[in-house]
Amino acid sequence: MATPQTGIFALGDSAHIYLEFTALPGVAAETLVRDVIAMHEPGTTVGGVNQVLGFRPEVWRAVAPDDTPAELTSFSADLPGADGFTMPATQADVWLWIAGASYDVVFDLGRAAVKHLAASATLVRELEGWSYRHSRDLTGFEDGTKNPALLIAPSIATLPEGSPGAGGSVLLFQQWIHRTAAWEALPQAEQERVIGRTKPDSVELAADVMPADSHVSRNTVERDGEERKIFRRNTAFGNVSEHGTLFVGFACDQWRLDRMLRNMAGTDDGLRDALTRYSTPKTGGYYFVPSLQGLGRFAPPPEED
User: Which end of the chain, N or C, is less packed with Cβ atoms under 10 Å?
Assistant: First the structure.
């Protein structure tokens, strides 16, 4: 049975670094993949720090076509929405997430990763994430209320056994900048209508008062009458002047993530998520996060004692 990368489900870390790299000209996909995987032993954590590796779908498909979902593609073009709203595509080749209990450790590992990959890839984006009031985002609302319990999260976040890419996960990674002054100018009752939940205790609004453009309404994705969930590992980022949410969403297929984005943007029906009027996406990329066995195919041989 294929085993997901353990860091996907390792809750509780308060310090995070997200690094995105693009291959240098002339570097073959296999060279890049082997260099990335050689950064650490994929079957373990390092000093209590979790590392999760993701690759542009086309990069991973080039080296492991039998271990890549057939329909998975990059975030290769901006996604247009209603009222001139756009979700930008900023796809890179490699995504590395380092998470731990303290920033000094993830900082050191992040520096080591950039140095290690200097001959094969360029760092194009670096973002630092952190926990805010345990489980809230910078709007003050609970984040990830509808996340599946850890017992069933792997079935939501990873591809099933027997399918190409089994044990791997489809990742959507986005940086959202909050318009905090405009948001905080809203009365709490109006904020709750934008989100679709109560602010103190995160209770979903009743159906008869739930706005059709609320964040809850536009984020709920269904197919054949069944809600198709995702597994969120979002964090806050930024400083006093500019800050927001890093969306880190894992799923067993790309369709539900794409459908969620199209709903939020109002791409197909013109009904835009009300929250997008107070938070603006700055980046967007899809990555495939292979299983440990998938990574192991390209890992360096173990050192002999």
Answer: C
Q: Is the pLDDT of residue 111 over 80?
A: yes
Give yes or no for residue 41 having a pLDDT over 60: no
List the chain domain ranges. 12-296
* Distance (Å, whole) CA 235 – CA 175: 10
Q: Is the pLDDT of residue 305 over 60?
A: no
Q: Which of 143, 253, 258, 273 is catalytic?
A: 143
Residue 206, both tokens = 């009743």
Q: Is 268 a catalytic residue?
A: no
pLDDT digits (tens, 9 = 90+) for 48-95: 899 999 999 999 999 999 999 999 999 999 999 999 999 999 999 999
Is residue 47 over pLDDT 90? no
* % of the chain residues with pLDDT over 70: 96
Query: Encoding tokens for residue 226?
Result: 């069944």
The per-residue pLDDT of the chain, averaged, comes to 95
pTM for the full model?
0.96
Q: What's the CATH code, domain 12-296?
A: 3.30.70.100
